[in-house]
Design a protein that fits this description.
Layout lengths: L7 E6 L10 H7 L3 E6 L7 H5 L4 E7 L2 H12 L9 E5 L15 E4 L4 H14 L8 E4 L2 E4 L4 E4 L2 E3 L3 H12 L5 E2 H9 L8 H14 L6 E4 L3 E4 L3
Parallel strand pairs: 1-2, 1-3, 3-4, 4-5
Antiparallel strand pairs: 6-7, 7-8, 8-9, 10-12, 11-12
Helix pairs in contact: 5-6, 5-7
Amino acid sequence: MVHRVIVWILVVGSESGADREGGALDVLQQLGCNVRATELWASLDDEELRRDPPTAVLIEALDEVDAGRAALLRLRAVAPLAEVPVLCAVTVNALQRLDPGDGFDDFMLHPYVPAELYQRIRRAEWQRSDFNAPERLKMGALCIDLAAHEVTVDGRPTQLTQQEFALLRFLCGNRGRVFSRQQLLERVWGVDYYGSSRTVDIHVRRLRMKLGAAVDNLETVRGVGYKMRAP
């Protein structure tokens, strides 16, 4: 099941394919996203986009890879859009014409698999987020404000105990790494703490109960411990 957060997506594509069944506009609307479409060769420097930049941009180039590259350059030239994640959708036949140096954050194959399309957009957004900002850790819908000692999910505050907060902060700050229960006790509770490893299990269980799908990537590594999976 895909955990969906409402986002707004700008779809840049051909006018003839804008309302096509199975096209990006159609699929993203069915996924519950707020979507706006504009033509592949249209100007992207308009006041509305400057005031309210999209969460992400999907350039539906399909077989027109050069037009997709040109659209990307126009996007990056607009200051409020310069850091917005941009994905490019192409056909299988056009795939070999993409180059890693083109500057897209990711690509999608058309026809789309809806769940994959949504996850790739969310992943691109996550990668350009301020996860490693000095005072804030961000991971999808989850945001840990270190200065305010607050945790929010989709902007809604969640009350955590001091140790729950400390454990979440540590795992998110070291995502992708596996830690044993003993290591977590030493790093989070301190070397002078003499509680059992069951303390870690209890706090992990509480985090999962309180934060739900926002910590779906908090994994139990059987026989080892826990890790916060990187996207």
